[in-house]
Design brief:
Number of strands: 25
Subcellular location: Chromosome, Centromere; Nucleus
EC number: 2.1.1.43
InterPro entries: H3-K9-MeTrfase_plant, H3K9_HMTase_SUVAR3-9, Post-SET_dom, Pre-SET_dom, PUA-like_sf, SET_dom, SET_dom_sf, SRA-YDG_sf
Distance between the termini: 50 Å
Pfam family, one: SAD_SRA
Order of helices and strands: EEEEHEEEHEEEEHEEEEEEEEEEEEEE
Keywords: Centromere, Chromatin regulator, Chromosome, Methyltransferase, Nucleus, S-adenosyl-L-methionine, Transferase
CATH architecture of the largest domain: Beta Complex
CATH superfamily of the largest domain: SET domain
Length: about 425
């Protein structure tokens, strides 16, 4: 993938080409002057990275894509810029990053490395657009070494408890971190919850597969697997059944997506006005698992106990209905679940409230013989770009002491209720 994409546009009696987008992927002598400016080399001739000494020198011509860029320059219109970058983890060997709209400011002819004439175009990124390619480059650098990053407090606040390290960052003020807590990757029950009727475990030694009518875990989910082959949640359910400890399927079974810790790179960061928050280095697809809410399962929350880091599954939330096939069913929690992450928890404790969230929670039941563990997992409502704060709706409470927990909401959404609990 590379080059100049253009279309023919009728101008009076003749048709002229107009550039729509360009892909800069290293095939020509392109280079960036800074994060917002690109010197782009035209196509054709032998201006590419072919350094054979016996190659015939050929000049580029003002035709096709080159002419389309020239016409776009004179019209003063914008073009889309896409960067192609080497990526050994990608099957194609490259990853392509859309960087937004650029305006062509000037063009000229220069001598290329091969000796032929090359058309050059100076493009400048339009202001006011979200960071894209420069942000992607920064994240790639952080993945290699994060120690020199501005505002870094801890390279891994999990102390190795998760598959990926979770950075703690503050580039807003001088606060050195949240109050101390013990990091645990999963929910802890002080005592098991017994089921009224023991249920069957699955014997899918190669993993649960779609269409297996003999799999009891699939039967519990209405006869189908709740996840795609890529691990995306098909639709929001009132209650989702995952394979439990007594099932014989492997850890990478398609029905164990929320188990095994983090699968994306997250970081805890200081927000401007809402304390600490959570965001991802990676783009997140709709329905992708983000994390579970880890902490201590409680029977009730005492009046004297701090509840700033508490999840109450009995609160009422607005149905989102954003995934294909979603219904307006509210979560069906089989028994009261209250999770305190005040002294021990994971990254989920840092997710802030929003009245227009980009994350939703899903109750998940994992059964083990005659015992049952209810967990709370978080999934993406839609596609979430990198470095976007992750938020969910804390829900509403309806009892006589609700007013005591009422807090001012700063989510900034057009649907903001002005308060949350």
């Amino acid at each position: 993938m590379g080059g100049i994409d253009y279309m023919g546009v009728k101008n009076s009696s003749e048709e002229e080409p107009l550039a729509l987008s360009i892909v800069s992927s290293g095939g020509y002598e392109d280079h960036i002057q800074d994060g917002n400016e690109l010197i782009y080399s035209g196509q054709g001739g032998n201006a590419g990275n072919d350094n054979r000494k016996d190659k015939e020198i050929k000049d580029q011509k003002l035709e096709r894509g080159n002419l389309a860029l020239e016409k776009r320059l004179h019209r003063g219109n914008d073009v889309r810029v896409i960067w192609g970058v080497k990526d050994v983890s990608n099957p194609t060997g490259k990853v392509y990053v859309y960087d937004g709209l650029y305006k062509i400011h000037e063009s000229w002819v220069d001598k290329g490395k091969s000796g032929g004439n090359v058309f050059k175009y100076r493009l400048v990124r339009l202001p006011g657009q979200p960071e894209a390619f420069t942000l992607w480059k920064s994240i790639e650098q952080w993945k290699e070494t994060n120690t020199t990053r501005v505002g870094l407090i801890l390279p891994d606040l999990t102390s190795g408890a998760e598959t990926f390290p979770v950075s703690l960052v503050n580039d807003v003020d001088g606060e050195k971190g949240p109050a101390h807590f013990a990091y645990i990757p999963s929910l802890k029950y002080s005592k098991p919850v017994n089921l009224t009727e023991p249920t069957a475990r699955c014997n899918c030694t190669s993993g649960c597969l779609p269409g297996n009518s003999n799999c009891p875990c699939i039967q519990k989910n209405g006869g189908y697997l709740p996840y795609t082959a890529n691990g995306l949640l098909v639709n929001q359910k009132s209650l989702l059944h995952e394979c439990g400890p007594s099932c014989t399927c492997p850890p990478n079974c398609r029905n164990r997506v929320s188990q095994g810790g983090l699968k994306i790179r997250l970081e805890v960061f200081k927000t401007k006005d809402k304390g600490w928050g959570l965001r991802s280095w990676d783009p997140i697809r709709a329905g992708a698992f983000i994390c579970e809410y880890a902490g201590e399962a409680l029977e009730k929350l005492g009046d004297d106990r701090a509840d700033d880091y508490c999840f109450d599954a009995n609160r009422t939330c607005q149905p989102l209905g954003v995934l294909p096939g979603d219904s307006n069913e509210t979560p069906n929690v089989p028994f009261p679940l209250l999770i305190s992450a005040n002294t021990a928890g994971n990254v989920a404790r840092f997710m802030n409230h929003s009245c227009s969230p980009n994350v939703f929670w899903q109750p998940i039941l994992r059964e083990n013989k005659n015992e049952s563990d209810l967990h709370v997992a978080f999934y993406a409502v839609g596609r979430i770009p990198p470095m976007t704060e992750l938020t969910y709706d804390y829900g509403m409470i309806a009892h006589e002491k609700a007013y005591q927990r009422k807090k001012i909401c700063l989510c900034g959404s057009i649907k903001c209720r002005s308060f949350f609990y």
